[in-house]
């Protein structure tokens, strides 16, 4: 657990209290700091059910070691967030996707991660594996809303919570 996050067990369950983080951090975090994220429930601050897994991704090429958080935001938005294990510049970059989205494009996160950003991206609320065109949205207002704005908004809200907790 880092000095940036403190877990308090209270009668109603587990609550997360984040202490103010500095604008940037040279603190080196470890696998335990990353693993604790998977034990936390981010559903309340995000406003919908959230499922997360977290693991350490080792440094490779230009990418620093990072906590890799993946999961889904209800109803079906897949996301991936990378939180630097050291040399964090104090900033979060939410990377979008292009065209009709449909997949989690981590290549959109690499440059920012190499420059010390915490990053997040998502699939736009749908998978293009079954329908690579826009048929997934036909007569489906919920997926149209998910793709139109909700997936980007909720993945960013979640990423801010992940950064606070980490």
How would you characterize the overall build of this protein?
There is one protein chain. This protein has one domain (5-165). A hairpin with a 2-residue loop joins strand 1 and strand 2 (13-18). The chain has four helices and seven strands; from the N terminus they run E-E-H-H-E-E-E-E-H-E-H. It has helices at residues 31-39, 43-46, 110-114, 141-165, and strands at 5-10, 13-18, 50-57, 66-73, 77-84, 92-94, 118-122. It has a five-stranded mixed sheet. A two-stranded antiparallel sheet has the order 1-2. With 166 residues, the chain is of the alpha+beta class. Residues 1-23 have low confidence and may be disordered.
Enumerate the strands of the largest sheet in spatial order, edge to edge or round the barrel: 3-4-5-7-6
- Mean pLDDT across the residues is 79
What structural class do you assign from the helix and strand content? alpha+beta
Q: What composes the largest sheet? A: 5 strands, mixed
Indicate the proportion of strand residues: 25-35%
Number of strands: 7
- Please indicate the count of domains: 1
Topology as H/E string? EEHHEEEEHEH
Q: Mind telling me the C-alpha Rg? A: 16 Å
Q: Looking at the structure, what is the overall shape?
A: globular
What proportion of the residues is helical, as a percent range? Answer: 25-40%
Task: Please count the helical segments.
Answer: 4
Distance between the termini: 8 Å
Low-confidence stretches: 1-23
């Amino acid at each position: 657990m880092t000095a940036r996050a403190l877990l308090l067990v209270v009668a109603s369950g587990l609550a997360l209290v984040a202490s103010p983080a500095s604008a940037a951090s040279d603190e080196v975090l470890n696998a335990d700091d990353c693993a604790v994220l998977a034990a936390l429930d981010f559903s309340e601050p995000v406003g919908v059910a959230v499922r997360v897994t977290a693991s350490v991704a080792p440094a490779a090429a230009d990418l620093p070691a990072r906590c890799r958080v993946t999961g889904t935001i209800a109803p079906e938005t897949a996301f991936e967030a990378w939180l630097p294990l050291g040399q964090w510049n104090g900033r979060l970059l939410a990377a979008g996707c292009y065209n009709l989205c449909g997949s989690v494009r981590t290549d959109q996160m690499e440059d920012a991660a190499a420059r010390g950003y915490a990053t997040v991206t998502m699939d736009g609320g749908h998978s293009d594996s079954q329908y690579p065109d826009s048929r997934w949205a036909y007569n489906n207002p919920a997926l149209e809303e998910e793709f139109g704005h909700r997936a980007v908004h909720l993945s960013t809200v979640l990423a801010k919570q992940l950064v606070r907790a980490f």
